[in-house]
Design a protein that fits this description.
TIM Barrel, single chain, alpha/beta, about 250 residues
């Protein structure tokens, strides 16, 4: 990142991060992830573990409230460590629907416990429930091709934005899902439907890529993040190596 960009957008946030407490594919705990991100230089992180529709580490046979209690433990451990070391940690999750995944922001564990109907919600119902709570739905890596994704499904009318830049697709440090064309297609898709773009690393361990979104100011909450994206606030995107404006044009 050049000096001028760094000065203009000093607050970098990792928006797509998993913990081993809650995501079966993750390798490090919430506390470990928080420490690594603080050391890297992030201002804050969003813990977005896989929910019941994805690769969750939580027993799906638990009662709803007990399931939520276990599910949010990765976030809670990251938050406790973040509070200790001076890193903002915000709650979110990655929802799975038959292999298609969505990043949910602007809600909290209290909302999850009080909204058991989200468990069996369709994509449309998910959007309406999250919106009613003041949250935001971002389509995660919409054009990724993997064995666990049976087909590409697009829901432009039931999402608020698109994860246009996913560092695992295009960062040179990534050893999985690495295909920059996935991001190219996501950027084109977001432009076609005039959907806001986001960026994140989709990290599952402390081998960081540096992806995310950088703002001119410090975010105060997950709802603040959702508001910033939905109202068109100024920000830049990165995969940790290349920087883009919020319309997906390369800056550096």
């Amino acid at each position: 990142m050049n000096t001028m960009l760094r000065q203009t957008y000093p607050y970098l946030y990792e928006t797509h991060l998993h913990t081993s407490e809650s995501s079966a594919c993750a390798r490090c705990t919430g506390s470990e992830m928080a420490r690594a991100c603080k050391e890297y230089g992030y201002s804050g992180i969003f813990v977005t573990d896989h929910n019941w529709g994805g690769n969750t580490a939580v027993d799906r046979n638990l009662d709803w409230e007990e399931w939520v209690d276990v599910f949010v433990s990765g976030y809670e451990h990251a938050k406790a460590e973040g509070d200790r070391i001076g890193l903002d940690v915000f709650f979110g999750y990655e929802a799975g629907y038959r292999g298609t995944e969505f990043l949910i922001y602007g809600i909290d564990p209290v909302w999850m416990r009080s909204t058991p109907q989200i468990l069996n919600a369709s994509v449309e119902e998910q959007y309406r429930l999250v919106h009613a709570a003041g949250g935001m739905v971002i389509h995660a890596h919409p054009f990724r091709e993997e064995s666990y994704i049976p087909e590409i499904r697009l829901y432009p009318e039931w999402v608020d934005g698109v994860e246009a830049v996913n560092a695992t697709h295009s960062n040179s440090k990534s050893s999985g899902h690495n295909n920059p064309a996935f991001d190219d297609k996501a950027i084109a898709y977001a432009r076609k439907y005039k959907l806001p773009m986001s960026a994140g690393s989709d990290i599952h361990g402390t081998h960081l890529f540096g992806g995310g979104i950088a703002f001119r100011r410090k975010l105060t909450s997950a709802k603040d993040y959702a508001h910033a994206i939905l109202t068109g606030e100024d920000y830049v995107l990165t995969n940790g190596e290349v920087w883009y404006d919020k319309s997906g044009n390369v800056i550096q």
